[in-house]
What does this fold into?
Amino acid sequence: MISGSGRNALYIVLSVALAFFLWYLVFVIRPFNFWLMMSFNTVILGIISFVCGGMAFKWEEWSLKNISLGIALAAVLYGIFWLGHHTLIWFSSLTGILPERAKNLQSIYANREVVSPALIALLLFFPIGFGEEVFWRGYIQRYMQKKWGKTIAFVATVILYTGVHIPTANPVLILAAFVCGIYWSGLYSITGSLVPVIVSHMVWDPFIFIIFPIGAGR
It folds into this structure.
């Protein structure tokens, strides 16, 4: 008979395996509309997180301070990506590395064409941004922190979060996932609160993808 600790570890392994399968399905196989699938994926993973891991935050954490912090952190991450984009352009022109950078970037933004921008922005805000943070930081990283400490939890979560994007074979998307993984996992590790991280993700997604996309026309 599996102990409670063993059962929780099994749930983690199975849920991560499911995340890899779902991301492969949505980015590579694409049997249905991309946005509906992403929304479905994050809702499923969010439900799993709450059922298997319990509530990842306290309702009182949704304070004006944490929400404002999350918005500010989204702005900082947007600035990091703006700077990174222009640095990547310079680096690619100088070294010839990532010769298909513009094509890789356009393939990311191409998914905007299939649904109205307003609906995409709404879905990115919720459930996609919310669900991703509840699962990756609120369930996976939180479990690992309790089990092995902050450092191992941080490194492992960043690797897993980046790893689900590897089947896309899009180096720009994989690099973006790696940067976001470091940023959001680092914030959760430092603040100890999931709310600012959730808000950051929920706000950043629509801005970077729909409202003020970086390099979408280049």
Observations:
- The chain has a mean pLDDT of 93.
- Helices lie at 4-29, 34-53, 64-95, 101-109, 117-148, 150-163, 171-191, 195-211.
- The first helix runs from residue 4 to 29.
- The CA atoms of residues 45 and 125 lie 16 Å apart.
